[in-house]
Amino acid sequence: MKKNLETLCIHGGWHPTKGEPQQLPIFQSTTFKYDTSEQMAKLFDLEESGYFYTRLANPTNDAVAAKINALEGGVGCMLTSSGQAANFYAVFNICQAGDHFITSNNIYGGTYNLFGVTMKKLGIECTFVDPDWDDARIEAAFRPNTKCFFGETISNPGGNVFDIERFAKMAHKHGVPLIVDNTFATPINCRPFEWGCDIVTHSTTKYMDGHATQVGGAIIDSGNFDWETCTHLGDPSTINPQPSTPKYPGLTTPDESYHGLTYTKAFGKQAYVTKLVSQLMRDLGSIPAPQNCFLLNLGLETLHLRMPRHCENAQRVAEWLEKNPRVAWVNYCGLPSNKYYALAQKYLPNGSCGVIAFGLKGTREDAIKFMDNLDFVSIVTHVADARTCVLHPASHTHRQLSDEQLREAGVAPDLIRLSVGLENVEDIIADLQQAMDKM
Ligand code: PLP
């Protein structure tokens, strides 16, 4: 039976039958038992599916992965121990030394560093582009060895909205998939596959968990990118000539570490996600603990209730900030004055997220004083929590970036990131007001 998002948040992934636990059990076991050696050999050859070692698969983790997969509408999902690991694996699954990819420059500082510094050390180069540039300027970044395009639905911390359909078309025109980090919107507010995106990633640490209990990540495969013809299946206008040499050899040529198995031949639409699990996770091993997946699942059970409330509260706070004489600027795509309002109406018609970026009139020190004066609104390196929290990226998350890199990443040095929680909105506003009054 086809289920709506609200029902999937609660029932997706775990379907207990007679006498089984109603709540998802934590399978806190590294290994799983078999009766014969042959049974286990078949698992190693990927001839049969079954659990044998938690680094590769675990029933608790799989149930949560299945729920997230259903919410995004994919063909398969792999969970990771963090959002960082998810973004690394998502790109590394299709890029190797000598390859190149393109990314929006307004992305989370940790991802910016991962792509621009750490992956470069692995021989994978990336070009940062401003999504506000015109098509010709962005398309100039594509090279023969370009393997994917990356962006965030709503950028952290700037709150810019990524034009998914535009960049999906552009990526497909050049025969590469679009990867979208959908952390801030969550599938409750945006489902990037519906706009042509091929792979979705998440930091599940954020709204999916929603209570600051675990760090985790997810990668979901739409199954819509044909790795042999380098074509998006839903968009025949982008059919590309068959490349003379395979563009994605890791998926379309035999994997020696799996007895010569070719992922596209053996797994069809699930080739990408199967390679993620059976090759990258096997070798790199950033799995989430089953205990963490259990906690994540509790968060997911109320995601559909929490997201609208985060958005409602944030909208009120953003409107209040916009009218406040002490505030220099506000960036929240739910405000009609916002540069990304039209894109938000298209991609996020039911609301975006609870994160607002704003700047106070005054100096950098004034911003710090304001934050120190807050009562229950807490200074934490976190967003998307039930509790309202605040951060100054230039002093905290993005402190590794120079002022120039900060501006390139769309982060003003005076930017305060306010993650509006689920408290009474009048109390949130009162706390912000009293902190400004004491400045
Ligand atoms: N992607 C986005 C949009 C994020 O905001 C973050 C963290 O803030 C990450 C990825 C990295 O996730 P994690 O902290 O779970 O590693």
Report on the structure:
The protein folds into two domains: 5-296, Aspartate Aminotransferase, domain 2 (3-Layer(aba) Sandwich); 305-437, Alpha-Beta Complex (Aspartate Aminotransferase, domain 1), CATH 3.90.1150.10. It is 37% helix and 14% strand. The protein has helices spanning 5-11, 37-44, 59-72, 83-92, 109-121, 135-139, 164-173, 186-189, 249-252, 263-267, 271-284, 290-300, 303-323, 341-347, 364-372, 403-408, 425-437; strands at residues 76-80, 100-104, 125-129, 146-152, 178-181, 199-203, 217-221, 225-226, 231-232, 327-331, 355-360, 378-379, 389-391, 416-419. A seven-stranded mixed sheet has the order 1-7-6-5-4-2-3, sandwiched between helices. Helix 7 (164-173) links the parallel strand 4 and strand 5 (178-181). The longest helix has 21 residues, at 303-323. The protein is globular, with a radius of gyration of 22 Å. The termini are far apart. Pyridoxal-5'-phosphate (PLP) is lined by residues 82-84, 87, 108, 110-111, 152, 156, 181, 183, 203, 205, 215, 217.
Largest sheet: 7 strands, mixed
How many helices? The count is 17
Give me the oligomer status: single chain
Strand order of the largest sheet: 1-7-6-5-4-2-3
Strand-residue fraction?
5-15%
CATH topology of the largest domain: Aspartate Aminotransferase, domain 2
Distance between the termini: 57 Å
- The overall pLDDT average reads 94
